[in-house]
Write a structure and sequence with these properties.
The protein is α/β, with parallel strands linked by helices. The strands form three sheets. An eight-stranded mixed beta sheet has the order 2-9-8-7-6-3-4-5, with helices on both faces. A four-stranded antiparallel beta sheet has the order 10-11-14-13. The protein folds into two domains: about 130 residues, Aspartate Aminotransferase, domain 1, CATH 3.90.1150; about 210 residues, Aspartate Aminotransferase, domain 2. The protein has 13 helices and 14 strands. Bound molecules: pyridoxal-5'-phosphate.
Length: about 375
């Protein structure tokens, strides 16, 4: 091994990338079944795709796509938008633009540990803001008041949250903004699950426009079922977007031109409505299968009802660590699920419910069978 600097790998993504194409059923990701290109494009849209030039596109994102992103946010303009390679790159740019060794960073736990890991790798002091399971995964705002101080460079939250599916209330949003404003820290809000709310709920309000030092990131991966396009974005003040754009040039130059054409089509109002409805329908049917299965498990598994996402973040009552449990499920049942430890919560599994009902049922039955073997042996 060459002499490389100390590095914390992205445990969740590493686990997925090793095995997701090697199992019969992959329920470790956090999207719904994605759309195939043929499925959602009209003849005209296919022509638009075929007409896309394959030269370097606008580095900060095509004007058309940035305009369609900007209209999703009150009073935003396209120069406040940077198009990135997924929300992952947008989140990574937030960290590379803002963070230096020794900075304090606050992240939500349990959570998608991208900023957590990037901040560790940048030599920051990372503090964890708990979502409280005993309070239905509400954020612990008293803890935030204790953690935050003038050394806090960045508060990074994910709303709606992965993996818990909880959505902040207006009051909680206001208190988070007020806490950041009091110490002058940046606020990064990853809103990739915006639009995945249960159908009876309204779309989650954005943090955009609530604070001058906010950076919102998002993508077409989750709510639109288009993760293969690898298109995301950041929206912030023009000064901040310019600074991120300078880092974007070093990292990738630009997102892919055909993907930007397709993302611009996806964000047209009618197309957007259809893609969101498709995603919600898939999650709804998957959740119904899951809820029935749950009643048949003799109390081994339990879940807090989520407000958004296609994910079940399942607490289990078995004497086995989540990584070992996920490994047994993978090896004995050829089903991939994400261990809670990779999201900051032991004795949990993260299972996506966004696939065909038969696939969900078959996978859950296999998980139940592995759990039953563990019960027999202790
Ligand atoms: C909270 C969160 N942010 C970002 C990402 C990455 O999304 P993208 O596919 O847009 O890069 C994920 C993927 O699981 C996620 O859960």
């Amino acid at each position: 091994m060459p002499n490389l600097p100390i590095f914390t790998p992205f445990e969740l993504e590493y686990y997925q990338s090793q095995f997701e194409h090697k199992v019969e059923y992959n329920l470790a990701d956090s999207s719904v079944k994605c759309v195939s290109t043929r499925e959602w494009l009209s003849e005209d849209e296919i022509e638009a795709l075929l007409d896309t030039g394959l030269f370097y596109p606008e580095v900060n994102g095509t004007r058309q796509l940035r305009e369609r992103i900007a209209v999703l946010y009150p009073n935003a303009n396209p120069d406040q938008v940077l198009v990135t390679v997924g929300a992952s790159q947008a989140n990574s740019l937030v960290c590379s633009t803002l963070l230096a060794a020794g900075d304090e960073v606050i992240v939500m736990t349990p959570g998608y540990r991208q900023v957590w890991g990037l901040a560790h790798n940048a030599g920051c002091v990372v503090k964890e803001l708990p979502l409280r399971q005993d309070r239905g995964w509400r954020v612990d705002l008293e803890a935030l008041d204790v953690l935050i101080n003038r050394q806090t460079k960045l508060v990074a939250i994910v709303n709606p949250n992965n993996p818990t599916g909880s959505v902040l209330t207006e009051e909680e949003m206001g208190r988070i903004v007020a806490a950041c404003a009091k110490v002058g820290s940046w606020l990064h809000v990853d809103e990739v699950y915006n639009g995945t709310e249960r159908s009876e709920r309204a779309e989650t309000p954005t943090f955009w426009g609530r604070y001058d030092k906010v950076i919102v990131t998002n993508s077409v991966s989750k709510a639109y079922g288009l993760s293969g396009l690898r298109i995301g974005w950041a929206i912030s003040s023009e000064v901040m977007i310019d600074a991120m754009w300078r880092r974007h040039e070093y990292g990738v130059i630009a997102a892919a031109a055909p993907s930007m054409t397709l993302a611009a089509i996806a964000l047209q109002p009618e197309k957007r409505r259809c893609l969101l409805a498709r995603q919600k329908h898939i999650s709804f049917t998957g959740r119904q299968v899951f809820e029935k299965w749950l009643t048949e498990q003799n109390g081994i598994f339990e879940v807090q009802p989520s407000e958004a996402t296609c994910i079940a973040f399942v607490r289990y009552h078995l004497p086995i660590r989540s990584f070992d449990f996920a490994e047994r499920i993978r090896k004995e049942a050829s089903v991939l699920v994400a261990p809670g430890s990779a999201l900051g919560a032991e004795y949990h599994l993260r299972i996506t419910l966004g696939y065909e009902p038969e696939k969900i049922r078959a996978s859950l039955d296999r998980i139940g069978a592995v759990a039953a073997k563990i019960v027999l042996n202790y």
